[in-house]
Specification:
CATH class of the largest domain: Alpha Beta
Number of helices: 7
Bound molecules: guanosine-5'-monophosphate
Radius of gyration: 17 Å
Number of domains: 2
Helix content: 40-55%
Distance between the termini: 17 Å
CATH topology of the largest domain: Rossmann fold
CATH architecture of the largest domain: 3-Layer(aba) Sandwich
Length: 197
């Protein structure tokens, strides 16, 4: 753990976290946001409906499909993907600029293809991290354990996870999430090395 974090301020670097569903991405990102790394979390836009606890402008910018498509036409997105059939997710250019203009580093939690695209845009200013469960078997187990969804939905997530895993070599760093405490420590090391570069 770094004691003096002032050296991290005002750098505007871009940290990207991507992972298949069930890899522990959100838990690790939440952990990092609690540390003093001066990260602003990039709030994505999505065309899906809010879940019961989610708030517009905090968890996502919730848009209708029409509003989302209008923003695509107007080139307002840094990147966007149809993550699930008929459901769009994207990073607004204005969101990343807002965070960078605040003198903060940007933390993105986006899908695997989006992560690869953002890394291409920012090059050395960005670090792309792929979070991986220790094995496909373990990932399947976690998805089944945590999910209240039907077998068919679980099967779809597993298929998608297998597809997404094939992109892991395109990331700068692969973080294996076997034990959560170890993954937290490893994630801090990765971030500190990147921000000190
Ligand atoms: P959820 O609906 O569970 O919040 O998110 C579904 C998936 O969409 C996750 O893999 C999440 O990382 C991804 N996602 C969220 N925001 C964005 C975004 O701005 N761009 C892309 N490409 N994917 C996103």
């Amino acid at each position: 753990m770094i004691q003096n974090t002032s050296e991290y301020k005002k750098t505007g670097k871009v940290l990207i976290f991507s992972a298949p569903s069930g890899s522990g991405k959100t838990t690790i990102v939440r952990h990092l946001l609690k540390q003093n790394y001066s990260f602003g979390f990039s709030i994505s836009a999505t065309s899906r409906s809010p879940r019961s606890t989610e708030k517009n402008g905090k968890d996502y910018y919730f848009l209708s499909n029409e509003e989302f498509k209008k923003k695509i036409e107007n080139e307002e997105f840094l990147e966007w993907q149809e993550v699930y059939s008929g459901t769009y997710y994207g990073t607004l250019k204005s969101e990343v600029e807002r965070i960078r203009n605040n003198g903060e580093n940007v933390l993105l939690e986006i899908d695997v293809l989006g992560g690869i695209n953002v890394k291409k845009i920012y090059g050395n200013e960005a670090l792309s991290v792929f979070i991986k469960a220790p094995s496909l078997e373990e990932l399947k187990k976690r998805l089944k354990l945590r999910s209240t969804d039907s077998d068919e939905i679980i099967r779809k997530r597993i298929d998608k996870a297998e597809y997404e895993l094939s992109f892991s070599p395109q990331f700068d760093v692969i973080l294996i999430n076997d034990n959560l405490e170890d993954a937290f420590i490893e994630s801090e090391k990765i971030v500190e090395k990147f921000l000190n570069k």
